[in-house]
Amino acid sequence: MLEQIGEIDPPQRLLMGPGPVNAHPRVLRAMSADLLGQFDPEMTAYMNEVMALYRPIFGTENRWTFLVDGTARAGIEAALVSLVAPGERVLVVNFGRFGLLLTEILERVGAVVETVDAPWGEVVPLEAIAAAVERFGPKVVATVHGDTSTTMAQPLDGLGDLCRRAGALSYVDATATIGGMEIAADRWGVDVVTGGLQKCLGGPSGSAPITVSAAAAERIFSRRHVEHGIRRDDIDDGLGVRIGSNYFDLAMIMDYWSEKRLNHHTEATTMLYGARECARVLLGEGLEACFRRHAAAGRAVAAGIRAMGLTVFGDDRYRMTNVTALYIPDGIDGEAVRRRMREDFEIEIGTAFGPLAGKVWRIGAMGYNARKHKVLITLGALEAVLRAEGFSSIPPGAGVAAALAAWTDSATA
Ligand SMILES: *Cc1c(COP(=O)(O)O)cnc(C)c1O
């Protein structure tokens, strides 16, 4: 059997889609370090370091800044299941596939969900959110920051204020932007923000950084059902009070990350090493420098696409810097292009979902891959593949030249 099932030796693909992307080599090296017991003082010291490292990355001073073990969706689900009780009203700011995911999770929680929507490729104006909050009176407002399905980044300045005035807590899924665009949990005034490693943080998927405000923590702890592994009898046990998940019960996870170190699950040691090194790589470069690098890569991708005579998707004012969608030209088979990109150039670019399926490709330049040479190589390959597929109107070399010029302009801007 071992003749057929060999040692892992994956091809060296360049992952230029909407995520995951290639992990930074330092992160992979950190993840090969030896394991520790979950209550070993060295391990709990690493946990405290992770808390300190992720505060600036989330733009917060929140004490409760830690990791949920699982992919980004684990962070989303832990936040929503811990904040929202069955029957409570939740407003979802919905402008893409991940808004639908929030809605879907909340419906399972038993929340009464209303959405305030924007068409794919646009964002929801703050006034529309304010009006919906006023009309609906939600306990929680949930939104995505950057939705990779549409490449739009929802502006969030002012959201926290308007939620607090209405007595609502707020939740933000920042998986696709954390590390690539500014996350300002405290300035936005939002209560819970979650992320993942596999986009701009340049790690593998499997760990979800999270930050929780004091107000949200208070609400979560008030719903605490189990302490020291023992059921509490002193809380109202009626439906709507208990947190309806054990694994994703943030009260229990926070007890584990607190000085109490109450056992919940076994911390995913190797993922924690990875998340820790992702943060060290980012803070070593500097947050501002890293955001500038992502912005330069995004501008270069868009400039290259346009110079090839292709059309960028979505409202330019709100496009994420780290992933760019472009229309598949008429008469071109989108999947055939992606296959040639993979087979001939070892480059992965992204397909699309829902209303954009078959209409756009998505090119990401995130984390370790938000680099000039990777953008240029991708655009050069795309030109060659498009020509091979019969799209012959591209001025030779135009995409690479425009991307290079755009990158240089951004570097000197
Ligand atoms: C990529 C992405 C996720 C991914 O979640 P996983 O569970 O890590 O696959 C979640 N939210 C947004 C906005 C994303 O872009």
UniProtKB/TrEMBL annotation:
Could you tell me which residues carry N6-(pyridoxal phosphate)lysine? K199
Under PANTHER family, the record lists:
ALANINE--GLYOXYLATE AMINOTRANSFERASE (PTHR21152:SF40), AMINOTRANSFERASE CLASS V (PTHR21152)
Which BP terms in the Gene Ontology apply to this protein?
glycine biosynthetic process, by transamination of glyoxylate
Q: What is this protein called?
A: Serine-pyruvate aminotransferase apoenzyme
The UniProt keyword set, sorted, is: Aminotransferase, Pyridoxal phosphate, Pyruvate, Transferase
Q: Which cofactor does it need?
A: pyridoxal 5'-phosphate
Q: Which family does it belong to?
A: Belongs to the class-V pyridoxal-phosphate-dependent aminotransferase family.
- What InterPro entries would the database entry show? Aminotrans_V_dom, PyrdxlP-dep_Trfase, PyrdxlP-dep_Trfase_major, PyrdxlP-dep_Trfase_small, SP_NH2Trfase/AEP_transaminase
Tell me the ranges covered by the Aminotransferase class V domain, including all copies. 39-224
Named from the GO MF annotations, one term is: alanine-glyoxylate transaminase activity
Q: Which Gene3D superfamilies match?
A: Aspartate Aminotransferase, domain 1, Type I PLP-dependent aspartate aminotransferase-like (Major domain)
Q: What is the lineage of its organism?
A: Bacteria, Pseudomonadati, Pseudomonadota, Alphaproteobacteria, Hyphomicrobiales
Q: Where does substrate bind?
A: R362
